[in-house]
Specification:
The structure is a single chain. By secondary structure, the chain is α/β, with parallel strands linked by helices. The protein has 2 domains: 26-73, no CATH class; 100-211 and 224-243 and 281-379, no CATH class. The protein is built from 12 helices and 13 strands. Strands 6-5-13-11-12-10-9 form a 7-stranded mixed beta sheet, with helices on both faces. A two-stranded antiparallel sheet has the order 1-2. It has a two-stranded antiparallel ribbon with strand order 3-4. Strand 1 (38-39) and strand 2 (44-45) form a beta hairpin. Helix 5 packs across helix 7 (177-186) and helix 8 (196-203) crosses helix 9. The radius of gyration is 24 Å and the shape is globular. The termini are far apart.
Length: 380
């Protein structure tokens, strides 16, 4: 027979459980836990709340689950606490985050890139042909407006440093899918493609090109790809030529961990020396933003449009449509053009005709991270 105290205890446990499972619902209803549409920590667009339709119920549960997984209350804080306090400090092991892998000597890699490295994410022949067709059409469309079009492709970290890959990485195909796509693009001689991979592999012994706790190249890695790009542009515009080591310097600086450390909650614990660039006699200066339209989820983010100018009327004008890898190209490219607009359009990699018609650039550079070729399929 239950005693009064045990009965009260059972009631309290039940009420505590109900309160616990009600927290997420109350936080959502009262809008206590505000989340952004873009996760800076994960460098991606989070799932949006799906629209409930009685006539279209099948996809709703899955879509809402994706939305909730991205927005449940205190998701970032709880995830970081688990990684930092439990995995890292208590168990003395690297965080076991979905999509994050620890390679040799503590190098961090993303699962997103792994699928391309291993060959589990492949494109059909039709998709590869469509990507080439999109770039071909854009080249021709720009050419009609007197614009020279160049495509530069930053490679994956695992392509440049395969010796640091996690031990369980296993290549299932002979050629990486991104190499297959670029080989197909190169067959179309109307498209000017600059492959960053070749330049970085040649420069590998000259210093660290990617940060250990980040999936992006650093300024040194970006510089060697920039040289290859500018050497090609110089053939069309003789007044444009790449900066040399006499024009700038690299200085190692102790910085917090990169985006992969941030994703695992270790940004404040992991630090590393990264090369920072300093232009010696810079000609470029920042100009006023125009305010070109961004995708709705990026509205209000003023850092996605950056404009630089050089007081030299002999130089051409350039627009650079970029992703996050393009950030490290800015100090270099901005020195080479009379007006250079660096525009992140939310991974759309679009033609951005409004900007082209207003700015009338001489050069358009599309900087697109190797695994992101799939985003060009929306323009086929």
């Amino acid at each position: 027979m239950k005693t009064k105290s045990s009965y009260i205890y059972s009631i309290c446990i039940g009420l505590f459980f109900i309160a616990l499972i009600s927290v997420p619902l109350l936080a959502d209803l009262l809008n206590i836990n505000k989340t952004e549409a873009i996760s800076k920590q994960e460098n991606r667009v989070l799932s949006g709340r799906p629209t409930f339709k009685v006539s279209l119920l099948d996809p709703y549960p899955t879509a809402y689950e994706q939305f909730y997984n991205d927005h449940f209350p205190w998701r970032k804080e709880l995830s970081n606490y688990l990684a930092r306090e439990i995995d890292y400090k208590f168990f003395k092991r690297p965080p076991d985050h979905d999509g994050l892998y620890v390679g040799k000597d503590g190098w961090l890699f993303t699962g997103y890139e792994r699928q391309y490295w291993e060959g589990t994410n492949t494109y059909t022949r039709e998709e590869v042909n469509s990507i080439v067709a999109v770039l071909h059409k854009r080249t021709m469309d720009y050419r009609k407006k007197g614009i020279r079009f160049y495509v530069i492709v930053p490679p994956m970290k695992s392509e440049i440093y395969p010796e640091k890959n996690p031990p369980d990485y296993y290549k299932r195909i002979d050629s990486i899918m991104t190499d297959v796509i670029m080989a197909a693009i190169l067959k179309d001689t109307s498209i000017t493609l600059i492959c960053g991979k070749e330049a970085l592999l040649q420069a590998k012994e000259k210093g660290l090109l990617y940060n250990i706790t980040d999936n992006h190249w650093n300024y040194r890695g970006a510089y060697y790809a920039y040289v290859k790009l500018l050497e090609r542009i110089h053939r069309d515009f003789s007044v444009v030529y790449p900066l040399t080591f006499q024009d700038f310097s690299f200085k190692d600086s102790l910085q917090p961990g990169g985006n992969l450390a941030s994703q695992s909650g270790l940004e404040d614990i992991d630090t590393e020396h990264v090369p920072m660039v300093k232009i010696k006699n810079t000609r470029a200066y920042p100009a006023i933003r125009v305010g070109y339209p961004l995708p709705p989820e990026f509205t209000g983010n003023t850092g996605l449009e950056k404009i630089w100018q050089v007081n030299d009327p002999a130089l051409p004008k350039a627009i650079i449509i970029r992703d996050s890898y393009g950030e490290h190209l800015i100090p270099f490219i901005s020195e080479n053009f009379r007006r250079s607009i660096f525009f992140f359009d939310g991974w759309y990699y679009g033609p951005n005709w409004e900007m082209m018609d207003k700015e009338k650039p001489d050069v358009v550079i599309l900087e697109i991270f190797a695994p992101h070729f799939k985003y060009l399929l929306r323009w086929k």
